[in-house]
Amino acid sequence: MSNLFVFNLFLAAGFAVIMGQLNPTGFVSGFVIGYLALWITRHLYGPSGYFARVINIVRLAVTFVWLLLVSNFRVLWDVITPRHLSSPAVIGVPLDARTDFEIMLVANIISLTPGTLSLDVSADRKTLYVHMMFLDDVETARRDIKEKIEKRVLEAVR
Predict the structure, then answer these.
(1) What is the pTM of this model?
(2) Model pLDDT for residues 94-115, shown as the tens digit of each residue
(3) Which residue among 38, 49, 82, 118 has its CA within the 20 to 30 Å range from the CA of 153?
């Protein structure tokens, strides 16, 4: 799988050089075209989880950007309106993530989303404590974190 990733990086760099676009846009375009070329010829490389992993990473990135936009507007609305809508609280979210990297990624995505902040992980590493600026229902908030963030992180990493 890592061989395909390295090959895809070489294809991306080659595309950027050939097209004369030595910038992030050229590299990303080359990566997408290289990915498609590798996917079309995937039967030549044997079974690999590379293609599913890349799709899962893209899904995680899109989910993060969506959550970032929605939460930014929610915080902005709370700031510019005279009546504050926030109802802050700290909740514990049970974790399915087990490795340090998985827990760190879940916690950082939560912290990078405005209106939420990861505070601590329990000693047994099974609960993540999160401060939320807008808490309407504890179970809904837990379910949202588990389904929208943790699930996507685990799909991308595992």
Answers:
(1) 0.81
(2) 999 999 999 999 999 999 999 9
(3) 38
